[in-house]
């Protein structure tokens, strides 16, 4: 129990650090947009500025989306066999647009999935819940109909547990805190975006299943649709 308490305190400390960084990014984006709007308002009341003298135009976009996620395992689990299942994902999207071709995207993603674990005839379903915060640089072409995304993904929560004899047992975090994502998106209509991403872990995790301790490196493929507004 003491080990679990220490683990939880360390995880909460990591979550607090990541959330503070995300808040700072959002505040900087909002302040930058406000400063740009105030500057444009002041200039409109003093004198006319030619289009070629203006800096990159700033704007924002928002969205909400759903999709699926599949986990790929690289593990030294020994006698335990682990089989991942396709899970679901929902996310909120915020983007700071810089000119016509670049954007800084910040998302809050919640996903749920499962693993089927088997060891010496004992089979259990391990339930996974994950909260990710991707912070991605987006490059957009073809009037923003095609975009390429790259950046870090902070996993602020990775919980995995299963039930045995009416007792909840902990499998350990499935994904590390630090990950790297690369993806491509296609905008079908003005407000509808399809995207696919590959998320690569930058560290391994320590896990256990019924006394068998092992390490895992888990990458993910996600795909979904986002309604932009």
What would you say this structure looks like, in words?
By secondary structure, this protein is of the alpha+beta class. The chain has one helix spanning 2-44, and strands at residues 58-75, 81-84, 87-98, 102-119, 122-141, 146-164, 167-170, 178-189, 192-201, 205-209, 212-228. The chain starts with a helix and ends with a strand. Helices cover 19% and strands 61% of the residues. A hairpin with a 2-residue loop joins strand 4 and strand 5 (122-141). The protein has an 8-stranded antiparallel β-barrel with strand order 1-3-4-5-6-8-9-11. Mean pLDDT is 83; it is low at 1-9 and 40-53.
What tags apply to this protein structure?
229 residues; 61% strand; single chain; disordered N terminus; 8-stranded antiparallel barrel; alpha+beta
Percent in strands: over 45%
Q: State the distance separating the first and last CA atoms.
A: 47 Å
Shape: elongated
Uncertain segments are 1-9, 40-53
Report the strand count: 11
- Mean pLDDT, to the nearest integer, reads 83
In spatial order, strands of the major sheet run 1-3-4-5-6-8-9-11
Number of helices: 1
Could you give a short account of the major beta sheet? 8 strands, antiparallel, barrel
The sequence of SSEs as H and E is: HEEEEEEEEEEE
- Amount of helix: 10-25%
Give the class from helix and strand content and strand pairing.
alpha+beta
